[in-house]
Design goal:
single chain, 170 residues, alpha/beta, Rossmann fold, 15% strand
Length: 170
Amino acid sequence: MVVGTRRVIAGVNGSVRSLAALRAGAAEARATGAELLPVLAWKPVGGEIAYARSPCPTLLRVWEQDARDRLRAALDQAFGGKPDGLVVHPTIVRSPPGPALVWIADQPDDLLVVGCGGWGPLGYMVHGAVSRYCLAHARCPVLAVPAPEMIRELRTRHHWRPEDFAAPRT
């Protein structure tokens, strides 16, 4: 537990790892009397460069609403809504997740909570390493919450083969 934490910023994307981070962030906020800021960072489909080449305000509103819905769904999955007994400020931001979280957690007495681990080399290439970025760039303490036990168990018990991903023959 970090003593004197004013805000607990939890990175959320809807994955099982981020839900574990959200729950850990809520526990830290409750223990320290801090505010909880669940943050979902989003960017336009295709990225900012693609959007700049063909801007569409209607699509932008749809993507922003999708981000709001995903954050609300994450709170519902983690707590059944906003957690009781906490001051919660759900936040969406249009930005890559690592820089957004570091930018929001800008006070030395903030606590940044992120899910970590569990990606293989391909996963890091596809999803990036938000937790690594935050650990390297944050100006406040960072709590990196490991993958839930369920994910670790599945990974050790099942050795994926190409046949596992083949479409069934009809």
